[in-house]
Amino acid sequence: MNTLEVKGLSYAYPDGKPALKGVSMHAGDGECVGIVGPNGAGKSTLLLHLNGILPADDRRCGEVVVCGNLLANANLHEVHRTVGLLFQDPDDQLFCPTVREDVAFGPEQFGFPPAEIDRIVRDALHEVGLDGFEGRSPHHLSGGEKQRVCLAGILACNPGILVLDEPTSDLDPRGRRDLSRLIGRLPATRVIASHDLELVVDLCSRVYLMDGGEVVASGPALEILSNEPLMLAHGLEKPHSLQHRHPHQ
Amino acid sequence: MRHDYIDRYARIDSPVHRLPAALKLGVAFALVVSTAAVPISAVPYFVSCVLFLLFVMIAGRLPAAFVGVRLLTLEPVAAGVALLSLMQHDGLFVLVRILVKSNICLLAMVLLSNTTPFADVLAVLRTLRFPPLLITVLALMYRYVFLLIDQSERMARARRSRTFSGRRARRWKTAAGIVGHLFIRSTERAERIYSAMTARGWR
After folding, report:
1. Taking CA A231 as the corner, what is the angle to CA A226 and CA A236, rounded to the nearest 5 degrees?
2. How many other CB atoms sit within 10 Å of the CB of residue A193?
3. Which of B4, B196, B201 minimises the CB distance to A95?
4. In degrees rounded to 5, what are phi and psi of residue A205?
5. What percent of chain B has a predicted confidence (pLDDT) above 90?
6. Most CB atoms within 10 A, among A159, A233, B154, B182?
7. Tell me, what's the pLDDT at B161?
8. Beta-carbon neighbour count of residue B193 at 10 Å?
């Protein structure tokens, strides 16, 4: 079961400023959960914890449970493999000289059989619609292509849980539509943090609204996102597609 | 914006580009080592080196102007050392020696980097069992140097668009600010890249 649970997670930045204050959330098997909130709400920081990137030290308290196992330093490598994390800026994530090497990076690190890696890379690139891009270098790709190569690099590790940080922020409308469709048909459990509320409306069944490092509201996506006073109070807006739709429709 | 002028021609097609990367790397390495070792009095050797490299340039369909400009941008390093040698006994002789030898080596490197994609060079180094960490560092350097150039040009343009006085002292001050900013941004990016690597199993 690919489930994710966060219980009372608090975290402070190295300068002592609190980033998360007792955040709790969960994502069920195969569910797609949205995290929305204004800039600086702590969304990205929360996502980094879901994959164990931020250290479990005295600046952190609370629990992260991945597939029923409590996240600890001992099982970090396993968690990295179970939880695929898509970073906000594709240039941070595409660190290899060619697309092939980048997509193969995860499988190589996780010790996949070398004979299979070529096939895994080909399949992952096919899944994101970039067949034949193996030899290209990342700095010659468009924003949408970079984002899709990043996703291929994560899918290649075959994670049960996908954590996506602003997946559509740099994309043009077509790139955004393609990526949205792609994410929508993935079988994995997905957690998406985004300002693109239409994306959240399209993909997520439940959302958590964060502000100031706390979860201020949570519930069915349509109910939260169409609550105009709540959205405005936290620096967001009711999405256009919900302007004339009843929340229980 | 794209900055591929370092190896702009690395991915075109020519008889030289089609040769195996290992061969090109081996020849370039041998040429650099022998050029450094052969005494300057062996004029026929140096002439044949230059002729060979010019032949590679033409066979590799590299425009002479592009190769010339690349060589000139690298020249200050060689010329700086050469000029310093003027202060010693027999300085002029040493100057000629340094200039001839270093230019042949630089030309060989410019030709290598524009006839062989860097990823292929790294693949050869990997089969030669170079330390993996060294290869990773080289790969990261190649990947991010373009981004760094991009970022500095964007910042310089933003500065130009808001600069109204031509006072030199002020220009230097803002240039220093840009360098400082670039440094901070690069360190932050380095941290994010490391996180992205860890997230995909690097340890």
Report:
1. 115
2. 24
3. B196
4. -90, -35
5. 54
6. A159
7. 83
8. 20
Residues A143, A184: Cα–Cα separation, whole Å:
20
Integer-rounded Cα radius of gyration of chain B = 21
Closest CA to A85 of A180, A181, A150: A150
Chain A residues touching residue B122 (CB < 8 angstroms): 97
Edge-to-edge strands, sheet with A69-70: A18-27, A4-12, A60-66, A69-70
What are the domain boundaries of chain B? 15-126, 131-199
Reported in sequence order, the residue ranges of A194-248 that DSSP labels E, i.e. its strands, are: 206-211, 214-220
Is the model's pLDDT at B169 over the cut of 90?
no
B112 Cα to chain A: minimum distance (Å): 17
Residues A240 and A47: their CA atoms lie apart, in Å, by: 27
Q: How far apart (Å, rounded) are the C-alpha atoms in residues A50 and B176?
A: 39
Residue B40 confidence (pLDDT) above 90: no
In chain A, the number of structural domains is 1
Q: Give the CATH number for residue A112.
A: 3.40.50.300
Q: Residue A224 in 3-state DSSP?
A: helix
Environment class of residue A123 by beta-carbon count within 10 Å: exposed (0-12), middle (13-18) or buried (19+)?
Answer: middle
Does residue A247 lie in a domain region? no
Q: Which residues of A touch B146 (CB under 8 A)?
A: 139
Q: Among all residues of chain A, which has the CA nearest to that of B185?
A: A92
Instruction: Let me know if residue A42 belongs to a domain.
Output: yes
Buried b (16+ CB within 10 A) or exposed e, B152-187: beebeeeeeeeeeeeeeeeeeeeeeeeeeeeeeeee
Spatial distance between the Cα atoms of A146 and A99, rounded to a whole number of angstroms: 9
Domain that holds residue A226: 4-242
A249 in any annotated domain:
no
Average pLDDT of each block of 10 consecutive residues along chain A (249 residues)? 92 89 95 95 93 82 92 89 92 91 93 92 94 89 91 94 91 89 93 94 95 95 94 92 71
Contacts for A83 with CB less than 8 Å, ≥ 6 apart = A4, A50, A51, A52, A66, A159, A160, A161, A162, A163
Helix (H, G, I), strand (E, B) or coil at A220: strand
B189 in Cβ contact with B182 (< 8 Å): no
ipTM of this model? 0.84
For residue B137, give how far its alpha carbon lies from the nearest alpha carbon of chain A (Å).
10
Query: Which comes out higher in pLDDT, residue A57 or B129?
Result: B129
Binned at pLDDT 50, 70 and 90, residue B3 comes out as: low
| CA–centroid distance for A70 within its chain | 20
CA-based end-to-end distance of chain B? 34
